[in-house]
Amino acid sequence: MKELTSASELCCANCSTSMRGDFCHDCGQSIHSVLKPVHGVVEDALEMVLHVDGRIAHTVPPLFIRPGFLTLEYFSGRRVRYVTPFRLMFILCLLAFFVGHIALDQVSSTTDSIGHISVGEGENAFAKATTPAEVRRSLKGQLAGLEIARQTGVTAGLDTAEQALRRQARERLIALGEAPAASTSAATPAHASSTAASNSQPATEELSKDDGALNNHDWGSRHDPVSIAWLPDFVNAKLDRGLMHLKANVQALRAGGDSKREAIERFKAGTFAVLPMTMFILMPVFALLLKVVYLFRRRLYMEHLIVALHSHAFLFLTLLLISLVSMFGVWLVPHAAWLAAPLRWIEAGLGLWAMAYLLLMQKRIYRQGWIMTVLKYLLVGWCYLWLLTIALVIAIAFGAASY
């Protein structure tokens, strides 16, 4: 034990080394005690959050607008101002999938409300309109909402919903004493829908015949346990449970109604739960691709891994922004239809910037000519696209087998 040289000299409580600051230079322990009032703990928490937020403010803008800047800063040793690559990618990954899940739920709820309109239940959607101008304005806003749903990939029931809206608008206009003139825009969807229905009837009959095995009660009730000899018992048990959940979800989807909606929610929740883990597994694989493609650049694998982390952090940030724009579109376009086109252009611009950003980042970090950079960019992108497709299929399979 070291002795104090003076009564006023402080020693580290952990190793008794003389203190020359707030931290012990021998063991690193802080001079401040953890036994403090509650307000002191709150102050420490706020300080930590503000410090992290300060680093995020220095990290996120250059991550989005300056390709390769953060990676080159990290290679140069200037790291204290920025969030570390793995933490940055981890935070943005969780935020992107969380907001994406919310956006997907929002689109689903919009589709559900459209479905209620399409079956024609309840009162006229324009019953509260007191003038023909209000009817037309309300119809325009609701048709804009249908268009947003189409742009987000939703197609089921939209034609029927559009027909129902136009029919109810005509009925309300007639009730208000203004019979609408016949228009091809109002008649065309109905004609197209009836034609599609007549053409799809034989296909529906064929599907009902071919799906007899899946609709058979024995398919869901009979269960052959999974038993693969070279796999451990717990893996076989997990596969067996997944298969049972998959069968239950398929039956719920075919049953329709509340069972179908619950199965879809389980499917989405299971898929989004697996996707972050899947992306973490792909990260070192992407770094390995860069290592192979730039084998003669004599860079360490860790350098390629940092490039991969920053690249994925940018992609997750772009996905987060696209999800936010999509959510704002669902909220605002029904009230301001003129916003639909600008929001579409913003989403398209973000997608194009993502492709250009990765190319510029690759060029600035590895410092090769444009021809070699473009060729290697296309090669890495093509290989990674296949890996990402396989990973998404696996995530979807896990989502379908969740319960």
UniProtKB/TrEMBL annotation:
Keyword Transmembrane helix applies: yes
Keyword list, A-Z: Membrane, Transmembrane, Transmembrane helix
Amino acid composition bias (Low complexity), ranges on this chain: 180-198
Signal sequence, start to end: none
Full protein name: DUF3667 domain-containing protein
Region (Disordered): 180-216
Domain of life: Bacteria
Membrane spanning residue stretches: 86-104, 269-293, 305-333, 345-362, 374-401
InterPro entries: DUF3667 (IPR022134)
UniProt keyword annotation of Transmembrane helix present: yes
